[in-house]
Every structure is written in C-alpha cells, then in structure tokens.
Amino acid sequence: MKVFIEAIGPSSAFAWSAAAIRKEVFENEWKRTLEPPMLQSRGQHLDLIARLESSGEPVAVLTVAETTGNAAMHKRFGLPFKANDRAARYTQLAVLKPYRGMDIPLQLILEAKRRFVKPGGFQYTWLLFDAERASNSSLCRRLNFHAGTGTYRSEYGRVRTLTRDEKRPEAYDADSAAMHYIAALKGFPNSEYQSTIPAGFAASNDSSNLHVATQLS
Predict the structure, then answer these.
(1) For 98, which DSSP code?
(2) Cβ(122)–Cβ(66) under 8 Å?
(3) Any alpha helices (H) in 11-136, and if so which ranges?
(4) Cα separation, 185 vs 2, whole angstroms
(5) Strand 146-147 relative to strand 58-66: parallel, antiparallel, unpaired?
(6) N or C: more exposed end of the chain, with fewer CB within 10 A?
(7) 22: number of CA atoms within 13 Å, CB side?
C-alpha cells in the first residue's frame, strides 16, 4: 500500500485530519491526553501527514520540532547536547491501526529530514520510544538511531531516548539504504539514492513550508 506525504499548516484542510488521527491513537487507544506538539517547543516546527495514494485518506501524522537551547527538556531526558547544538525532536507520530507495519514512520522521518532537518542545518535529532522496544526498533536498525541506556517517565509512559548525529557519515549511509528500501517497496526500478525523493514519494517539494506513535513520540 503506497502513501504520499505532505506538509500541513494550521489553515490546511488536513489540519483537522491530523488532530483526529492523534485523538484516535493517543486518547482513544492509549487513554492519554497530550498537549499539541507546537506547545512542546519554542522553535520552528513542521507537521507532516501521510495519505493513501489510492484514496487520499489521511492515515498518519508526525511533527518535527526544534529544541535547540531547551536545556530543561534535554536535561530531563539525559541528552548531552550543548547550548548551541542545533537539535530537533520527532514527536507525536501517530499511525492508524490498520496501516501499521507498512514502514510509514520510516517514510515520515525521511521526509522530515529532507524538508526540515537538512535545510535547517540540525546536528542532532532525537525522539522518545517505548523503553522495552527501543534497541530493536526499525529506527535503530534502518536509520542508525542510538538508544540511550537510561529510562524515563513521560506522558507516553516508560521511554528511552533515540538520538542520531546527522553530521556523521553513518547517518547519510543509513538514509541512503533506507531510501533504497522504500523505493523498492514502492516498485521503482531505479532506486539508487541521489539525495532526492523518488517521484510520487511526496506531494510537494516546498521545503520552505515550516509551520513548523504508535510507539514513537
């Protein structure tokens, strides 16, 4: 099943859809009430939504938000970032239950990297992940995220941090392999990674649109 991914802003027709997906996953399924992701960060953020190519139905949402200089948040989760290290957090990824296991989170993060992380010159990206499954997550296996050793209580329950140094060659190599994998899933015959998104992967190439989990948050 193929999806395409696009950025959404507060006035987007799909802003309501994103909120509805998060309500279904976090409130109805997890029984947790979360504040909107834009209230978690003082910096820029970008909201992405994934929709089915066949019908246009929204099925998943992700926010990536800048946390540069947020010493209190970084200290709370044991992140060793310096005050001027540019850092961005992936947060409130929600995928509707019928569409899990289809690598949609991987595709959302790759698109967030292309639209927000890389243009913004961020050195570090991070997120919170279910503590029991962090080390074996697809993000560690396919995108070279590293699971922290400590565990923390958060609004999502017991979590560990996943972090990645975006400037290391291993990060680029992981992105290359992941794009090759996604292209193969989508049936593109020429799936070599050329720092671009395969045609049809995203609905828009406007990386300036910075209006800016399942188990990922």
Answers:
(1) G
(2) yes
(3) 15-22, 71-76, 104-112
(4) 8
(5) unpaired
(6) N
(7) 23
d(CA 64, CA 91): 6
Q: Which residues pair with 62 in a beta bridge?
A: 48
pTM for the whole structure:
0.83
Q: Which two tokens stand for residue 177?
A: 């392999």
Lowest mean pLDDT among 9-18, 64-73, 127-136, 188-197: 188-197
Q: With 0-12 CB in 10 A as exposed, 13-18 as middle and 19+ as buried, what is 146? A: middle
Phi, psi of 39 (to 5 degrees): -85, -10
Structure tokens at 5: 């991914």
* SS3 call for 198: coil
pLDDT in tens, 198-217: 333 333 333 333 333 434 44
State how far the Cα of 90 lies from the Cα of 111, in Å rounded to an integer. Answer: 12
Q: Which residues touch 205 (CB under 8 Å, ≥6 apart)? A: 197
Supply the pLDDT for residue 81.
Answer: 96
- Structural domains in the chain, CATH included, are 3-186 (3.40.630.30)
